[in-house]
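Q: I'm a student working through a structural biology exercise. My instructor gave each of us a protein and asked us to get a predicted structure, then write a short paragraph describing it. Mine is Site-specific recombinase. I'm not confident about reading structure output yet, so if you can add a plain explanation after the tokens, that would really help. Here is the sequence I was given:
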Amino acid sequence: MTDLQAFEAWLREQDRSDVTVRGYLADMSQFERWFEQTNGRGLRVEDVTPADVREYRAWLQTVQKASAATIRRRLMALRAYCRWGMAAGKIERNPTARLKMPREEKLSPGWLERSEQWRLVREAERGIQAADTPARRRLAVRDWALVVFLLHTGLRVSEACAVEVSDVQMGERSGWVQVRSGKGAKARKVPLNAEARRALKAWLEERGGQPGRMFEMTVSGVQRRLAEMGRRAGVEVHPHTLRHTLAKNLVDAGVGLQEVAALLGHSSLNATRVYVTPGERDLERALSRLEG
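A: Happy to help. First, here is the predicted structure for Site-specific recombinase. I'll explain a few features afterward.
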């Protein structure tokens, strides 16, 4: 078993999500290539030194010209790898212990403006109107329902893909979706507003009553469909954009951070506070007020 295979096994023992594991392994594969090219030998955790860590960070900054966020992510993967090395008894000291992460001024995450939200939903509705076969209509209704569902629940894409038909309860005036596979294996119930209920009812009528996954899609499938609809609507969008959009809409409507955190499944308010941080467009609008 290679170091990276053992590292993967350790991550899974730590109950890290599949997304985190895949991300760490991808970032460590890059470090492995850099280490081999720089040092002329294969990667072993025993051979990683503080000097390697500093040089790798400098390479990311000056050669790769990576953003601060990308550098932080790749160094976090390297730090976790070295922690595995200590846990496995391969090293006594962590070479990343004194590592300083790059900082950048935080702007709030990207979200869609109201006009962009409307364009995206309108594009999804056009897909239904343009469908010329039952099969195409079925897919178009699913895509529209998915967009509305994500915009009004803020579920992570992995959570939305895991929702079963039996996880959804809807009445005339209320509804809930049970999220059973939230981040950190935490379950929660998310209310369904009128728009989300209307979209899900339309999709369930089209889909039929058979049990199984609500949207019958993979994470990569959702990403592709949203990107395609966004391209046609002239909006750059991915699943997390819709999650951020719900949070921004709630904050703008005066909903408290604790309620927003509960809806999003955040374990800490720190993760939610980014939504009250001005975004780039907020700052642009602020300065535009000075224009005569």
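A: Here are two points you could use in your paragraph. The two ends are 67 Å apart (CA to CA). The chain is about 60% helix and 5% strand. It's a good idea to check both against the output above yourself.
Q: Great, thank you!
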